[in-house]
Amino acid sequence: MKKHNFYAGPSILSDYTIRNTVAAVANFADTGLSIMEVSHRSKEFLAVSSEARELVKELLNVPDGYEVIFLGGGASLQFCMVPFNLLNKKAAYLDSGTWAANAIKEAKFFGEVDIVASSKEANYTYIPKNYTVTDDVDYFHFTSNNTIFGTQLRQDPDVKARLASDMSSDIFSRPLDVSKYDVIYAGAQKNLGPSGVALIIVRKDALGHVDRPIPTMLDYNTHIRKESMFNTPPVLPVFAALQTLKWYKKEGGVAKIAKRNEEKATLLYDEIDRNKLFRGTAIPEDRSLMNVCFVMTDEYKDLEEDFNKFASAAGMVGIKGHRSVGGFRASIYNAMPKSSVEALVEVMKEFEKQH
Fold it and tell me: Does residue 161 contact residue 182 with C-beta atoms inside 8 Å?
């Protein structure tokens, strides 16, 4: 039976990424060595790192004056690295979910944090709006996609402040105006590769303006100067990320992927709205194109476990919702084929017929 992978992360990867990574685990670049054992200083891996960074710039139209680096520690480490490097006096943060709240917690160690708005009182079922970001902040930080609650900012915020964003779960899912940002960061395990590495895009002119000393490993400039090679990088995840970037280019780039993402999400949301058994949890205008969160309607809520079992038996993997929301979550990242979304929709229709 075909398995349809709806896990929220680590999550589905393209066949192209998996196939090429498996081959490199056996024999990397005809070296006769595995990618897992080759030196990160070898010319073969240096070429991987360089190509990955250049492809990020190409796919996202990164302008001059920015650097791309790959670091260990995931996005959670960036919760402190961003303010360590950029927060001199005051920063503004948008509280739109669990990971946004975690970023706020870390930023408070480094300066004043203005929480401009929050949707916590509604269990983060919407993206806050009509907030004000004052002109005196060093940057405005937001989480672009909230995996747990299924909400997403689909456009760059229209504020005067420089932007900083955690894009872990929707990087490369839509075109960006990178010039508005001082830093964009993303854990790899959603739309880029296996866990173990984070992608950071940082504006060079934004660095070097804080009054505090920065420990060597936590200083973006350290890693920029050494081209992500200050310490041993997570070699295998970086290689896999390169394969994903190559696949994005083969598929026609970010704009085409964005259109495909819209089609997949519309297909699934339309079924949720039509089916008498289900309802979405996020407000319609803020629904995520990456993480579709839904629950049973009140009349049928006692069927939740039955649907979990029914869907699992049909090959749907990883659709159980996060414990803070309950219900179901179908993560339909860039690598998710439309056919898998169609399969889930058919499962939902069949379960409706039976009840």
Answer: no
Burial class (CB in 10 A: 0-12, 13-18, 19+), 80: middle
Active-site residue list? 99, 166, 190
pLDDT in tens, 280-310: 999 999 999 999 999 999 999 999 999 999 9
Delineate the domains of the chain, giving CATH numbers in brackets.
15-250 (3.40.640.10), 253-354 (3.90.1150.10)
Write down the residue that tokens 């949890």 correspond to: 281
Cα–Cα distance, 263 to 304 (Å, whole number): 26
Do the beta carbons of residue 186 and residue 168 sit within 8 Å? Answer: yes
How big is the chain, counted in residues? 355
CA distances to 38, 60, 201, 203, 248 from 69, rounded to whole Å, are 20, 14, 7, 11, 19
